[in-house]
Hints:
By secondary structure, the chain is α+β, with helices and mostly antiparallel strands. Helix content is 56%, strand content 14%. Helix 8 (133-155) crosses helix 13 (292-322).
Amino acid sequence: MRQRHRICAVVLAAFGTSWAQNSNQLLVQKLVSRPVARVNGSVLTQGDLLREMYTIFPYARTHNGFPKAMEADIRSGALKMIEFEELVYQEALRRKLTVLPAQMDRAAADFLKQFSSDAEFRSYLTSEMNGSLDKLRTSIRRSLLIERILKSDVADRATVTAAELRSYYDKNPEQFRIPESFAFQTISILPPDKASPGQLKEAAKRAGDALLKARATKTYNDFGLLAEKISDDDYRVSMGDHKAVDRAKLPPSVSQVVMAMQAGTVSDLIRIDQAYCIVRLNSHIAAGAKKFEEVKDSLRTQLEKAKTEQFRSGLNKRLRATGRVEEL
Protein backbone atom coordinates (compact mmCIF):
# COMPACT_ATOMS: atom_id res chain seq x y z
CA MET A 1 0.00 0.00 0.00
CA ARG A 2 1.29 3.43 -0.88
CA GLN A 3 2.04 5.13 2.44
CA ARG A 4 0.99 8.78 2.18
CA HIS A 5 0.83 9.37 5.92
CA ARG A 6 3.83 10.79 7.68
CA ILE A 7 4.66 11.53 11.28
CA CYS A 8 3.44 14.97 12.32
CA ALA A 9 6.96 16.38 12.52
CA VAL A 10 7.19 16.11 8.73
CA VAL A 11 4.14 18.34 8.32
CA LEU A 12 5.32 20.78 10.96
CA ALA A 13 8.71 21.11 9.28
CA ALA A 14 7.12 22.56 6.17
CA PHE A 15 6.05 25.62 8.16
CA GLY A 16 9.45 26.36 9.68
CA THR A 17 11.32 24.92 12.61
CA SER A 18 10.51 27.84 14.90
CA TRP A 19 6.78 27.11 14.78
CA ALA A 20 7.41 23.43 15.44
CA GLN A 21 9.75 24.20 18.32
CA ASN A 22 7.30 26.66 19.85
CA SER A 23 4.57 24.00 19.56
CA ASN A 24 2.08 26.56 18.22
CA GLN A 25 -0.34 23.78 17.42
CA LEU A 26 -3.35 26.01 16.78
CA LEU A 27 -1.55 28.00 14.11
CA VAL A 28 -0.11 24.88 12.50
CA GLN A 29 -3.49 23.15 12.54
CA LYS A 30 -5.09 26.16 10.90
CA LEU A 31 -2.47 26.18 8.16
CA VAL A 32 -2.57 22.44 7.40
CA SER A 33 -6.36 22.44 7.31
CA ARG A 34 -6.55 25.32 4.81
CA PRO A 35 -8.40 24.12 1.64
CA VAL A 36 -6.32 23.96 -1.54
CA ALA A 37 -8.80 22.20 -3.84
CA ARG A 38 -12.30 20.73 -4.06
CA VAL A 39 -12.97 17.53 -5.99
CA ASN A 40 -16.68 17.07 -6.57
CA GLY A 41 -17.19 18.96 -3.33
CA SER A 42 -14.65 17.01 -1.25
CA VAL A 43 -12.03 19.31 0.24
CA LEU A 44 -8.29 18.65 -0.06
CA THR A 45 -6.14 20.55 2.42
CA GLN A 46 -2.72 22.09 2.69
CA GLY A 47 -1.77 19.16 4.91
CA ASP A 48 -2.70 16.69 2.14
CA LEU A 49 -0.66 18.74 -0.32
CA LEU A 50 2.39 18.95 1.93
CA ARG A 51 2.43 15.19 2.54
CA GLU A 52 2.49 14.62 -1.21
CA MET A 53 5.17 17.27 -1.75
CA TYR A 54 7.37 15.52 0.81
CA THR A 55 6.69 12.20 -0.91
CA ILE A 56 7.84 13.68 -4.23
CA PHE A 57 10.89 15.38 -2.70
CA PRO A 58 11.75 13.66 0.61
CA TYR A 59 15.12 15.44 0.80
CA ALA A 60 13.23 18.56 1.88
CA ARG A 61 13.09 17.09 5.40
CA THR A 62 16.85 17.36 5.79
CA HIS A 63 17.57 20.32 3.50
CA ASN A 64 15.51 23.06 5.13
CA GLY A 65 12.57 22.81 2.78
CA PHE A 66 12.16 22.67 -0.97
CA PRO A 67 14.63 24.24 -3.42
CA LYS A 68 13.18 27.57 -4.54
CA ALA A 69 13.80 26.78 -8.22
CA MET A 70 11.84 23.51 -7.90
CA GLU A 71 9.18 24.34 -5.32
CA ALA A 72 6.50 25.56 -7.75
CA ASP A 73 6.82 22.47 -9.94
CA ILE A 74 6.81 20.16 -6.92
CA ARG A 75 3.69 21.85 -5.58
CA SER A 76 1.94 21.69 -8.93
CA GLY A 77 2.77 18.01 -9.37
CA ALA A 78 1.67 17.20 -5.83
CA LEU A 79 -1.62 19.06 -6.26
CA LYS A 80 -2.41 17.18 -9.47
CA MET A 81 -1.58 13.89 -7.73
CA ILE A 82 -3.86 14.39 -4.71
CA GLU A 83 -6.65 15.56 -7.04
CA PHE A 84 -6.18 12.43 -9.16
CA GLU A 85 -6.19 10.14 -6.13
CA GLU A 86 -9.39 11.72 -4.83
CA LEU A 87 -11.03 11.28 -8.22
CA VAL A 88 -9.95 7.63 -8.27
CA TYR A 89 -11.26 7.10 -4.72
CA GLN A 90 -14.62 8.59 -5.63
CA GLU A 91 -14.74 6.36 -8.71
CA ALA A 92 -14.19 3.34 -6.47
CA LEU A 93 -17.13 4.44 -4.32
CA ARG A 94 -19.26 4.98 -7.42
CA ARG A 95 -18.51 1.41 -8.51
CA LYS A 96 -19.41 0.24 -4.98
CA LEU A 97 -16.12 -1.56 -4.53
CA THR A 98 -15.43 -3.09 -1.13
CA VAL A 99 -12.43 -4.22 0.91
CA LEU A 100 -12.54 -7.65 2.51
CA PRO A 101 -11.80 -7.81 6.27
CA ALA A 102 -8.74 -10.02 5.67
CA GLN A 103 -7.31 -7.49 3.17
CA MET A 104 -7.90 -4.70 5.66
CA ASP A 105 -6.17 -6.58 8.46
CA ARG A 106 -3.11 -7.33 6.27
CA ALA A 107 -2.85 -3.74 5.12
CA ALA A 108 -3.15 -2.43 8.69
CA ALA A 109 -0.42 -4.81 9.85
CA ASP A 110 1.86 -3.71 7.00
CA PHE A 111 1.19 -0.08 7.87
CA LEU A 112 2.20 -0.59 11.50
CA LYS A 113 5.58 -2.03 10.43
CA GLN A 114 6.82 1.42 9.40
CA PHE A 115 6.91 2.55 13.04
CA SER A 116 9.92 1.70 15.18
CA SER A 117 7.99 1.69 18.43
CA ASP A 118 4.50 1.82 19.89
CA ALA A 119 5.25 5.32 21.18
CA GLU A 120 6.07 6.50 17.66
CA PHE A 121 2.84 5.02 16.36
CA ARG A 122 0.81 6.64 19.17
CA SER A 123 2.43 9.99 18.39
CA TYR A 124 1.45 9.60 14.75
CA LEU A 125 -2.09 8.52 15.65
CA THR A 126 -2.55 11.55 17.91
CA SER A 127 -1.13 14.12 15.49
CA GLU A 128 -2.50 12.78 12.19
CA MET A 129 -5.67 10.90 13.13
CA ASN A 130 -6.81 12.78 16.25
CA GLY A 131 -6.13 9.61 18.19
CA SER A 132 -8.76 7.66 16.26
CA LEU A 133 -8.06 4.11 15.10
CA ASP A 134 -11.31 4.22 13.12
CA LYS A 135 -10.03 7.23 11.20
CA LEU A 136 -6.78 5.40 10.47
CA ARG A 137 -8.64 2.34 9.19
CA THR A 138 -10.79 4.59 6.98
CA SER A 139 -7.63 6.11 5.53
CA ILE A 140 -6.11 2.67 4.90
CA ARG A 141 -9.35 1.51 3.28
CA ARG A 142 -9.24 4.57 1.02
CA SER A 143 -5.71 3.68 -0.11
CA LEU A 144 -6.74 0.10 -0.85
CA LEU A 145 -9.70 1.22 -2.96
CA ILE A 146 -7.45 3.61 -4.92
CA GLU A 147 -4.98 0.78 -5.52
CA ARG A 148 -7.77 -1.48 -6.73
CA ILE A 149 -8.89 0.98 -9.41
CA LEU A 150 -5.31 1.64 -10.48
CA LYS A 151 -4.71 -2.11 -10.78
CA SER A 152 -7.81 -2.81 -12.87
CA ASP A 153 -7.74 0.33 -15.03
CA VAL A 154 -4.00 0.91 -15.35
CA ALA A 155 -1.59 -1.83 -14.22
CA ASP A 156 -3.50 -4.81 -15.60
CA ARG A 157 -4.03 -3.08 -18.93
CA ALA A 158 -0.38 -2.04 -19.16
CA THR A 159 0.89 -5.62 -19.27
CA VAL A 160 3.04 -6.28 -22.34
CA THR A 161 2.79 -9.70 -23.98
CA ALA A 162 5.63 -11.67 -25.54
CA ALA A 163 4.05 -11.10 -28.96
CA GLU A 164 3.96 -7.33 -28.41
CA LEU A 165 7.61 -7.34 -27.37
CA ARG A 166 8.67 -9.25 -30.46
CA SER A 167 6.56 -7.08 -32.75
CA TYR A 168 8.06 -3.86 -31.34
CA TYR A 169 11.58 -5.26 -31.71
CA ASP A 170 10.98 -6.28 -35.33
CA LYS A 171 9.34 -2.96 -36.30
CA ASN A 172 11.99 -0.71 -34.71
CA PRO A 173 15.36 -2.11 -35.80
CA GLU A 174 17.14 1.26 -35.59
CA GLN A 175 16.47 1.45 -31.87
CA PHE A 176 18.57 -1.68 -31.35
CA ARG A 177 21.34 -0.87 -33.80
CA ILE A 178 24.87 -0.99 -32.40
CA PRO A 179 27.35 1.38 -34.06
CA GLU A 180 30.96 0.35 -34.52
CA SER A 181 32.45 1.12 -31.13
CA PHE A 182 35.63 0.83 -29.10
CA ALA A 183 35.80 0.06 -25.38
CA PHE A 184 38.99 1.51 -23.93
CA GLN A 185 40.78 3.11 -20.99
CA THR A 186 42.94 6.21 -21.05
CA ILE A 187 45.73 7.90 -19.19
CA SER A 188 45.96 11.60 -20.03
CA ILE A 189 48.70 14.06 -19.27
CA LEU A 190 47.40 17.63 -19.47
CA PRO A 191 49.60 20.72 -19.21
CA PRO A 192 48.14 23.80 -17.47
CA ASP A 193 46.13 26.31 -19.47
CA LYS A 194 48.40 28.86 -21.15
CA ALA A 195 51.34 26.68 -20.26
CA SER A 196 54.85 28.12 -20.44
CA PRO A 197 57.55 26.39 -22.52
CA GLY A 198 58.92 24.92 -19.31
CA GLN A 199 55.54 23.52 -18.33
CA LEU A 200 55.06 22.00 -21.78
CA LYS A 201 58.46 20.36 -21.50
CA GLU A 202 57.53 18.97 -18.08
CA ALA A 203 54.24 17.59 -19.47
CA ALA A 204 56.11 15.83 -22.27
CA LYS A 205 58.48 14.25 -19.75
CA ARG A 206 55.56 13.11 -17.57
CA ALA A 207 53.89 11.64 -20.65
CA GLY A 208 57.01 9.68 -21.55
CA ASP A 209 57.27 8.29 -18.01
CA ALA A 210 53.55 7.44 -18.04
CA LEU A 211 53.94 5.51 -21.31
CA LEU A 212 56.69 3.34 -19.84
CA LYS A 213 54.53 2.52 -16.83
CA ALA A 214 51.44 1.91 -18.98
CA ARG A 215 53.27 -0.54 -21.22
CA ALA A 216 54.39 -2.47 -18.15
CA THR A 217 50.78 -3.16 -17.19
CA LYS A 218 49.31 -6.53 -18.13
CA THR A 219 45.59 -6.33 -17.27
CA TYR A 220 42.57 -4.03 -17.20
CA ASN A 221 43.02 -3.59 -13.45
CA ASP A 222 46.75 -2.84 -13.71
CA PHE A 223 46.15 -0.11 -16.27
CA GLY A 224 43.13 1.22 -14.34
CA LEU A 225 44.99 1.51 -11.06
CA LEU A 226 47.78 3.36 -12.84
CA ALA A 227 45.24 5.72 -14.41
CA GLU A 228 43.81 6.46 -10.95
CA LYS A 229 47.29 7.46 -9.75
CA ILE A 230 48.72 9.49 -12.61
CA SER A 231 46.04 10.47 -15.16
CA ASP A 232 44.84 14.07 -15.32
CA ASP A 233 41.46 13.49 -17.01
CA ASP A 234 38.14 12.93 -15.23
CA TYR A 235 38.03 9.25 -16.21
CA ARG A 236 40.75 8.49 -13.67
CA VAL A 237 38.05 8.09 -11.00
CA SER A 238 36.66 5.10 -12.93
CA MET A 239 40.01 3.45 -13.72
CA GLY A 240 40.28 5.44 -16.93
CA ASP A 241 37.37 3.46 -18.42
CA HIS A 242 35.36 5.14 -21.20
CA LYS A 243 33.20 2.02 -21.73
CA ALA A 244 32.03 1.67 -25.37
CA VAL A 245 32.38 4.80 -27.53
CA ASP A 246 30.90 5.17 -31.00
CA ARG A 247 33.71 5.37 -33.55
CA ALA A 248 32.06 8.42 -35.10
CA LYS A 249 32.44 10.30 -31.81
CA LEU A 250 36.18 9.70 -31.42
CA PRO A 251 38.76 12.35 -32.36
CA PRO A 252 40.35 11.34 -35.70
CA SER A 253 43.77 10.97 -34.07
CA VAL A 254 42.37 8.46 -31.55
CA SER A 255 40.19 6.66 -34.10
CA GLN A 256 43.15 6.02 -36.39
CA VAL A 257 45.18 4.53 -33.55
CA VAL A 258 42.54 2.23 -32.06
CA MET A 259 41.57 0.92 -35.52
CA ALA A 260 45.06 -0.59 -35.81
CA MET A 261 45.20 -2.01 -32.24
CA GLN A 262 44.47 -5.45 -30.84
CA ALA A 263 42.38 -5.88 -27.69
CA GLY A 264 44.54 -5.81 -24.56
CA THR A 265 47.32 -3.69 -26.07
CA VAL A 266 48.52 -0.22 -25.15
CA SER A 267 49.06 2.57 -27.68
CA ASP A 268 51.97 4.95 -28.18
CA LEU A 269 51.53 8.52 -27.01
CA ILE A 270 48.69 10.26 -28.88
CA ARG A 271 49.12 14.02 -29.14
CA ILE A 272 45.90 16.05 -28.99
CA ASP A 273 46.76 19.74 -29.15
CA GLN A 274 49.15 20.16 -26.21
CA ALA A 275 47.88 17.16 -24.28
CA TYR A 276 49.07 13.54 -24.38
CA CYS A 277 46.88 10.45 -24.24
CA ILE A 278 47.64 6.75 -23.81
CA VAL A 279 44.94 4.23 -24.76
CA ARG A 280 44.44 0.64 -23.67
CA LEU A 281 41.99 -1.04 -26.06
CA ASN A 282 39.66 -3.48 -24.31
CA SER A 283 37.45 -4.44 -27.25
CA HIS A 284 36.50 -3.50 -30.81
CA ILE A 285 32.73 -3.84 -31.17
CA ALA A 286 31.53 -4.39 -34.73
CA ALA A 287 28.43 -2.62 -36.01
CA GLY A 288 25.31 -4.73 -35.78
CA ALA A 289 22.12 -5.10 -33.73
CA LYS A 290 21.38 -6.22 -30.19
CA LYS A 291 19.71 -9.60 -30.13
CA PHE A 292 16.10 -9.84 -28.96
CA GLU A 293 17.08 -11.98 -25.97
CA GLU A 294 19.53 -9.29 -24.85
CA VAL A 295 16.96 -6.50 -24.81
CA LYS A 296 13.62 -8.13 -24.05
CA ASP A 297 13.67 -7.51 -20.29
CA SER A 298 14.62 -3.83 -20.52
CA LEU A 299 12.25 -3.43 -23.48
CA ARG A 300 9.38 -4.90 -21.46
CA THR A 301 10.07 -2.39 -18.68
CA GLN A 302 10.20 0.46 -21.19
CA LEU A 303 6.95 -0.48 -22.92
CA GLU A 304 5.08 -1.20 -19.70
CA LYS A 305 6.14 2.17 -18.32
CA ALA A 306 4.85 3.90 -21.46
CA LYS A 307 1.55 1.98 -21.38
CA THR A 308 1.13 2.67 -17.66
CA GLU A 309 1.51 6.40 -18.27
CA GLN A 310 -0.89 6.20 -21.21
CA PHE A 311 -3.65 4.45 -19.25
CA ARG A 312 -3.08 6.54 -16.13
CA SER A 313 -3.33 9.74 -18.15
CA GLY A 314 -6.44 8.45 -19.90
CA LEU A 315 -8.09 7.59 -16.57
CA ASN A 316 -7.24 11.02 -15.21
CA LYS A 317 -8.76 12.74 -18.27
CA ARG A 318 -11.95 10.66 -18.10
CA LEU A 319 -12.48 11.32 -14.41
CA ARG A 320 -11.81 15.04 -14.77
CA ALA A 321 -14.17 15.25 -17.75
CA THR A 322 -17.07 13.88 -15.71
CA GLY A 323 -16.14 15.52 -12.40
CA ARG A 324 -15.55 18.97 -11.01
CA VAL A 325 -12.10 19.98 -9.77
CA GLU A 326 -11.61 23.46 -8.30
CA GLU A 327 -8.19 24.71 -7.21
CA LEU A 328 -8.49 27.30 -4.44
